[in-house]
């Protein structure tokens, strides 16, 4: 059984990663339709060795589509995702448009796959920082309740898209050559610099990225009382976000039990070599599916505190991989159409 698939925002960093992940994991794609803005029409992207033309996103783009991945921003998702559902597709949306909608599941398949049964056509992919943090904390949560999280993020350029990644390269080149460089994508100089995450700050002093981590954690875990205190920072790394995390637990498990929980949890790789001072690094997380976790230790500040460090590829587990894993779960449970259309996608 194979499916007609659409990718909205196909030429962006996450859209291109979606195409790679679908191919690498041999997702049962019968035909793929690549959708983007008018300026991308005429471009081609390769899928399974074949060039696929990019088409302009239009209201009727979803005729014959079974599954639609959206990664083109919340405004596009709000306008076109309901159209895709009306046309008969299941939507997996990577934007913030529907994440906090009570009727839209917000899913990390390793953590809350049961939420998929409640979808009404749209499933939300969590924010990349939230995914990496919760993957790093779920093994602990399965040992005892997490009461409080203090997290500082070190977020890569990939989180701001392909243009930000290119700006980091261009800015670094100019810096090393002693040439002036004016930022165009991000608000501050990026080479050899870091700054507070480039999202709007609310009256409470938290920016949008930090607010997402607070609200999404409570929704995914189904725990409205867990306290989350994030500080999100943009750092000059191309791919893979890093996070320094301290948690206060209901009880403090033995370190041996904590290590065993991490070794047993799918999607996480323990990187914790104290003798060699080798712990998670974004350079080693880049291009990998697993979230790397290490520097695990009892925290000196909380009676039941545990501290750790995590790295995860923002474009993979933080976005594209998680979306494809959601689709795979839908296939396993029979939640995608049971009789996919095997002919050519209508023009």
What can you see in these coordinates?
It is a single chain. The protein is α/β, with parallel strands linked by helices and 347 residues long. It folds into two domains: 3-97 and 320-333, NAD(P)-binding Rossmann-like Domain (Rossmann fold), CATH 3.40.50.720; 129-156 and 194-314, Dihydrodipicolinate Reductase, domain 2. The chain is 29% helix and 24% strand. Helix 1 crosses helix 8 (316-333) and helix 3 packs across helix 8. It starts with a strand and ends in a 14-residue tail after the last helix.
Features:
8 helices; seven-stranded mixed beta sheet; Rossmann fold; 347 residues; Dihydrodipicolinate Reductase, domain 2; alpha/beta; globular; 14 strands
Strand-helix topology:
Elements (H helix, E strand, L loop, with lengths): L2 E6 L4 H12 L4 E8 L7 E4 L2 E7 L10 E4 L3 H13 L3 E4 L28 E3 L3 H14 L4 E10 L6 H15 L18 E2 L11 H14 L5 E8 L6 E9 L5 H10 L3 E3 L11 H4 L5 E8 L6 E8 L3 H18 L14
């Amino acid at each position: 059984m194979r499916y007609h698939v659409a990718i909205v925002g196909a030429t962006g960093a996450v859209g291109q990663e979606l195409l790679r992940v679908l191919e690498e994991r041999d997702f049962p794609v019968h035909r793929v339709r690549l959708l983007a803005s008018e300026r991308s029409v005429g471009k081609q992207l390769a899928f399974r060795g074949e060039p696929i033309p990019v088409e302009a996103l239009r209201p009727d783009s979803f005729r014959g589509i079974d599954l639609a991945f959206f990664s083109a921003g919340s405004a596009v998702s709000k306008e076109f995702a309901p159209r895709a559902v009306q046309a008969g597709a299941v939507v997996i949306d990577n934007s913030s448009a529907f994440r906090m909608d009570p009727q839209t599941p917000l899913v990390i398949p390793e953590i809350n796959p049961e939420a998929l049964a409640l979808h009404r056509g749209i499933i939300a992919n969590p924010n990349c920082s939230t995914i990496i943090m919760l993957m790093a904390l779920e093994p602990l949560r399965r040992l005892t309740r997490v009461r409080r999280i203090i997290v500082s993020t070190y977020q890569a350029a990939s989180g701001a898209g392909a243009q930000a990644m290119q700006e980091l390269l261009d800015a670094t080149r100019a810096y090393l050559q002693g040439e002036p460089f004016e930022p165009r994508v991000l608000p501050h100089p990026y080479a050899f610099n870091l700054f507070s995450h480039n999202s709007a700050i609310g009256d409470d002093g938290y920016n949008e990225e930090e607010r997402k981590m607070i609200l999404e954690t409570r929704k995914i875990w189904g725990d409205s009382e867990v306290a989350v205190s994030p500080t999100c920072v943009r750092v000059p790394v191309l791919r893979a976000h890093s996070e320094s995390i301290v948690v206060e637990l209901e009880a403090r498990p033995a370190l041996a039990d904590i290590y065993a929980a991490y070794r047993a949890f799918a999607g996480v790789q323990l990187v914790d070599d104290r003798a060699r001072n080798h712990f998670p690094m974004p350079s080693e997380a880049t291009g990998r599916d697993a979230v790397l976790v290490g520097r695990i230790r009892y925290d000196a500040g909380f009676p039941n505190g545990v501290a750790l460090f995590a790295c995860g590829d923002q474009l993979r587990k933080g976005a594209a991989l998680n979306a494809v894993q959601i689709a795979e779960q839908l296939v396993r449970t029979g939640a995608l159409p049971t009789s996919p259309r095997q002919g050519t996608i209508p023009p």
